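User: Please predict the structure of the protein below. I'd like the answer in structure-token form so I can feed it into my own downstream comparison script.

Assistant: Understood. Taking the following sequence of 303 residues as input:
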Amino acid sequence: MAVENHMLKENFNDLISFLVVARERSFTKAAAKLGVSQSALSHAIRGLEERLELRLLTRTTRSVAPTEAGEKLVESLGPRFAEIEGELEALIEMRAKPAGNIRITAGEHAVDSVLWPVLKSFLSEHQDIKVEITVDNTLADIVSGRFDAGIRLGEQVAKDMIAVRIGPDMTMAVVGSPDYFAKKGVPQSPQELQNHNCINMRLPTMGGLYAWEFEKDGRELRVRVDGQLTFNSLRQRIDAAVVGLGLAYVPDDTVKEAIARGELVKVLEEWCTPFPGYYLYYPSRKQHTTAFSLFIEALRYKG
């Protein structure tokens, strides 16, 4: 019986290690997450493969990927380990204070505008709740990434997710410096932006450039702009506009102070109509812990 218990414990630890390597597609990243050395992790996976007499991972010099057998193991074991984790969290919830870990993925603007302002007071009130935020503009898959929830604009939330509104409607703004407009003139329509030096945004998903979207009287326009600069971050686009390097298309709330200071000027306002703001989303099958329920209620939009 002692031998069986040892075998069970050994398999359990190695299966968890395998799941992390399979998800991370990297021994380096998996070892860091598990807090073990790469050599110990590699040894554990080899031991598991030998006991099962199956190759679970395909290793190359640059990457690691599950074999067909490995994929089946991920699909069958992943939900079971998640269920065990959920049960353990539920036991922790029996304590007097709500406790637990919450992992969130969100873009930089969502973190700055709706998440962080609420979290400051939420974490002070609930000191046994830990929150991990991954700032990521790529619309990450929260299930495969093992996040509890993500934050996206309403129109980007998948239909099989539960979505909770956490922010007001948003409006975009075309902005430039007074100096830029003095030299280049003011565009009178979105089409005229093609004659201006515009600061592009690189889309994180497919790697293309974002086409600026406008609407007026029910008429929608998408304008592909050109210019000297392209960023995949928001703050640099705003700063580039402030120093006169071109026009930026950014969330209105991010430039209010710069406009008030006279550093930036808005144009084409009649073409920039409101659209649904940010939503917290999570899988419908997720079992709520008290900590996660409190987190949702703290973020829920009250406007």
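That's the full token string. Confidence is low (pLDDT under 50) at residues 1-6.
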